[in-house]
Amino acid sequence: MTRRPRPTAPPSRAARVALSTSRAERVALPTSRAERVALSTASRAELLALSMSSRAERVARSRGIRTLGVVALRALTGALAVASCTDREPRAPDLRPPAAAAADTVAVWMTTGDGSALLAKQPALVFDTPVAGVPTITVDGATTYQAMDGFGYTLTGGSALVINRMPPAARDALLRELFTRSSTSLGVSYLRLSIGASDLSSAPFTYDEVPAGQTDPALAAFSIDAERADLIPVLRQILAIDPSITLLATPWTAPRWMKDNASYVGGSLLPANYPAYARYFVKYLQAMKAEGITIAAIAVQNEPLNPDNNPSMTMTAAAQAEFIKHHLGPALRAAGLTTKIFLYDHNADHPEYPLAILNDPAAKAFVDGSAFHLYGGSIDALSTVHDAHPDRNIYFTEQYTASNGSFAGDLRWHVRNLAVGAPGNWSRTVLEWNLANDETFGPHTAGGCGTCLGAVTIHSSSSAVTRNVAYYVIGHLSRFVEPGSVRIASAVSDDARATLPNVAFRTPSNRHVLVVLNDGETTQTFNVAFGGRSVTHTLGTGSVATYVW
């Protein structure tokens, strides 16, 4: 991945590391089965224990401690296991969204820049007459835009490793926290995978490794065995929790023998190997399917304009068009695969790249849509591509947060540009970068990102879990907006357009969801108007809220 919020050109690794701007916010994650029971039952003993836990967390926070240790959490929840001893069988996953408030009220969840509220439920708002003299955000459910496919992260090889080495009970608790949808879980509905290694794998590899100087056009050496230790087991656990989750896969590099520099880093795919590389994709999709894992979509190449990552591979727009229309598209069709093809998968500062491919009718015929990152350019470039080809889809597939930034700054930037900006510019997905890593920001390859912060940090010695800013950015969408929801119109009065960015959705169950950021420098009070009714709310500077009715 490239690492910088908004460069003017594809940045170097050194520049990306130097200019990274994000930060972790550390909060304990329930790790025992008893704790999960606590979140799903309401006995007096459990509520008392939860209030004790909440109090302990507040005391810890006041002392500057962001993460409660596993031992302390288990002590607090030991009584819960006794109180709930009848719950001995595995429960069916709860994928229902949090309940909306009563018909005349609006439920509110909020995260503040200072971390005093973290995706925390607020008092319900009552529909009433609007307050005069403040901005109004008007939600119009009759005006609809794109359907939403989901929200989530990349399950890198490193993510799978740190999750899979957790104790079974802690791992199960974390996966249910991430992949069920309720008032206490996240509801992640979309995951991106790497085909072979990414820079957040322990080491670079592909699925067709042969000795230096040899080639393998028949792909006799093809194998996904490198994924059997961690990625495949973790994916199976996730799919057992939510079989409907959507999976996108993209390669960081082709096998070295297919490239003009025979290296994991940089270089380009040799045209003579286009047929073999198309078959490589087919074999990958078939191999994963044989493991019970269906890949819904593939992107042709991660960051095709970035030659510096480890691994990486460059690919021009002309080369990508040639590969799609004469090799990859026909190969998928011949194999009877309906896997979607995404092109580009890089920064918004070069919309001419996807446009050049979409302007080629033969290539466009095989393409579902274009994928974007935002380490360069402006999010409204997604609309530029959509408007030129409205019959093809838009996807936002990666943005990182870094270990040396600020929670408040990243919350604000990522909500404005990703949570609000990407759907507001036609994206069907919002994906942050790495799902999980350890306290040293690993694993990663030599030369890979050493400052990339996961949505969660899993501490290697204790398996304690810390939730970071990307957790909350995605959570303000994923917990409430199920796949199949549609974006609907929302507009704020002109005087607050720059300081109250917002986006709205209607879910399949006919609930309405509005996400609002206070991007100004002062506390703002505003009305939310819908169907002739209004509620009024106040957000502190840098705070984000999700409203559900």
Shape estimate: globular
CATH superfamily of the largest domain: Glycosidases
Roughly what is the average pLDDT, rounded to an integer?
87
Integer-rounded radius of gyration: 23 Å
Strand order of the largest sheet: 2-1-22-19-18-17-3-20-21
Helix content: 25-40%
Outline the biggest β-sheet. 9 strands, mixed
> Could you say which structural class the secondary elements and strand pairing correspond to?
alpha/beta
- Number of structurally distinct domains: 2
Number of strands: 22
Distance between the termini: 38 Å
Q: DSSP helix count?
A: 14
**So what's the CATH class of the largest domain?**
Alpha Beta
CATH fold field value of the largest domain: TIM Barrel
Low-confidence stretches: 3-93
The CATH level-2 architecture of the largest domain is identified as: Alpha-Beta Barrel
Strand content: 15-25%
Descriptive account of the structure:
With 549 residues, the protein is of the alpha/beta class. The chain folds into two domains: 105-146 and 487-548, Immunoglobulin-like, CATH 2.60.40.1180; 149-480, Alpha-Beta Barrel (TIM Barrel), CATH 3.20.20.80. Helix content is 29%, strand content 22%. The chain contains 14 helices and 22 strands. The strands form four sheets. The protein has a nine-stranded mixed β-sheet with strand order 2-1-22-19-18-17-3-20-21, with helices on one face. Strands 4-5-6-7-8-9-10-12 form an eight-stranded parallel barrel, surrounded by five helices. Strands 13-15-16 form a three-stranded mixed β-sheet. The longest helix has 19 residues, at 44-62. The two termini are 38 Å apart.
